[in-house]
Amino acid sequence: MPVLTDYARNLMTRALCARAPSLPTAVYAALGTGGTVAAGISGEPAGNGYARQRVVFTGTGPQRNAEAARFVFTAAAGTLTHIGLYDAASGGNALAYGPLAQTAPILGAGTVTIAAETLTVSAE
């Protein structure tokens, strides 16, 4: 997930300048159909059992998800192409986004799983 949003860049800039930003207390993964640095992902599903998933990261350099994230769908939701990180289970601020390694066509009930250690965040 290589792209930080404008919001995340501003957080980092304030932290580097000792301006004590309000850091997220939890991070949630979301799925969508695209993304921008201003808004994070676009085309996030609504309903059909979909919900953002809380993600805990680990590592001393690049951060990786400690456990699998499972997105459950009860009905079709289209083809999902991107993953994003937010500071809230709904709404909130977009932190980062990037393309999925493989698109996820949701044509009916099913699950999209992001395996442990496969979601990587770095400041490069």
In short:
With 124 residues, the protein is mostly beta strands.
Task: Please provide a written account of the structure.
It is a single chain. The protein is mainly β and 124 residues long. The protein has one domain (3-121). Helix content is 9%, strand content 45%. It is built from 1 helix and 12 strands. It has one helix at 6-16; strands spanning 3-4, 27-32, 34-36, 40-42, 53-55, 57-58, 63-65, 69-73, 78-86, 94-106, 110-114, 120-121. The strands form 4 sheets. The chain has a 5-stranded antiparallel β-sheet with strand order 1-10-9-2-5. A 3-stranded antiparallel β-sheet has the order 6-7-12, with no helix packed on it. A hairpin with a 4-residue loop joins β6 (57-58) and β7. It is globular, with a radius of gyration of 14 Å. The chain starts with a strand and ends with a strand. The mean pLDDT is 92.
Largest sheet: 5 strands, antiparallel
**Residue-averaged pLDDT:** 92
Low-pLDDT runs: none
Output the strand order for the largest sheet: 1-10-9-2-5
Question: How many domains is the backbone divided into?
Answer: 1
Q: Helix coverage percent of residues?
A: under 10%
Q: Report how far apart the termini are.
A: 10 Å
The string of secondary-structure elements, in order, is: EHEEEEEEEEEEE
| Strand-pairing-aware structural class | mainly beta
Question: Whole-number radius of gyration?
Answer: 14 Å
Got a strand count? 12
What is the overall silhouette?
globular
Strand percentage: over 45%
Count of helix runs: 1
